[in-house]
Amino acid sequence: MADDIYIASPYKQPLPGNYPTQILHGLDEEIDYLPGTHIRVWFTHLPTAYPRHRHTCLEIIEGVHLHYTCRIGDTTYTVNPGDILIVPPGTIHDLTPARNCNGWIYLCDLDWMRTIPTAKDLNRALSRPLFISQKRQPNLYMHVSGHLSRMRNVYFSASDQRELLFDAELMLLLSRLIESSRSDAPEEGTLDKRHAHETLFSQVVDYIELNYARDLTLDAVAHQFNLSNAYFSRLFTQYVHDSFTGYLTNRRLKEAERLLADNSLSITEVAIRCGYSSPAAFSRTFQSQRKCTPSQFRQAYLVFAGQEDLARAAAQAPN
């Protein structure tokens, strides 16, 4: 990456080091990983364009504000907020941010995974660039963005297990991509029918987004879209890559995580706002899916938020 990326970033790198300018050997870029590791995370905030290059690591580009343009072969990807682009190792690409564009760049060396027996499945999943859209692939986006958020939080923390915890989340993310690639086989029938189903289930996801805090059931939503329960359930899993119940639960818990960051809201208020009839039901589901209680999650978030505020203040303090 070019040296402009290091200047006045609101996210100070967690370990000291000499950060060089972009080093290219022909098209091959030499990656400046976090010292002593095989990972690097950048928050981009300057309009620096990166010419055609390739590297041996996995690159993940996550849009936050405005957009990036990334060219890979004959395809141009526009990465907006709500989009994630996964660039496989060895892929020649360039990257141009819009003026005042912000986003996250994750660089991860995967060589250490080569000895894992299931690595061949990962090779298939990363055989081409993957563009994940919140609008078109809401469940996959929700899972991948959640893993990226936790990878980012660990990376900028003071944990002495930074790389281990980062890799744990990365492996879960890659496992999700493998599962998605296995379920991408097209449905039998015409292309027009497939497009019609994609449009329909985009509307279904929009409906859930507007109503997840209400008492939603599969029966009610299937009836809303004039489909039988069995047919709706089968198509939902095919196009959203999750069961109706699984998707609704994950959407509610993602909102719960956001609300738990507000210490002025009680656990009961959070439960009601997320569509749960009682705080007990909410707590059972949260603990089952997140492996901690809502109160424990809130405490951990507040501790991390305090560390992040200190890091930002230190980064912005005059030398």
Structure, described:
By secondary structure, this protein is of the alpha+beta class. Helices cover 45% and strands 17% of the residues. The strands form 3 sheets. Strands 3-10-5-8-11 form a 5-stranded antiparallel sheet, with helices on one face. A 4-stranded antiparallel sheet has the order 4-9-6-7, with no helix packed on it. It has a two-stranded antiparallel sheet with strand order 1-2. A hairpin with a 2-residue loop joins strand 1 and strand 2. The N terminus is likely disordered.
Features:
319 residues, alpha+beta, Jelly Rolls, Arc Repressor Mutant, subunit A, 2 domains, five-stranded antiparallel β-sheet, four-stranded antiparallel β-sheet, 10 helices, globular, disordered N terminus
Condensed summary:
By secondary structure, this protein is of the alpha+beta class. 45% of the residues lie in helices and 17% in strands. The longest helix has 23 residues.
The chain-level mean pLDDT equals 83
Helix content: 40-55%
Percent in strands = 15-25%
CATH superfamily assignment of the largest domain?
Answer: Regulatory protein AraC
Count every helix, treating DSSP H or I runs of 4 or more residues as helices.
10
First CA to last CA: what distance? 24 Å
Taken in chain order, the helices and strands follow as EEEEEEEEEEHEHHHHHHHHH
Q: From the alpha-carbon coordinates, what is the Rg to the nearest angstrom?
A: 21 Å
Number of domains: 2
Structural class: alpha+beta
The CATH class designation of the largest domain is Mainly Beta
Quaternary status of these chains? Answer: single chain
* Unreliable parts: 1-8, 185-189
Shape: globular
Q: If you consult CATH, what is the topology of the largest domain?
A: Jelly Rolls
Q: From the 3D coordinates, which CATH architecture of the largest domain would you assign?
A: Sandwich
Number of strands: 11
Largest sheet: 5 strands, antiparallel
Strand order of the largest sheet: 3-10-5-8-11
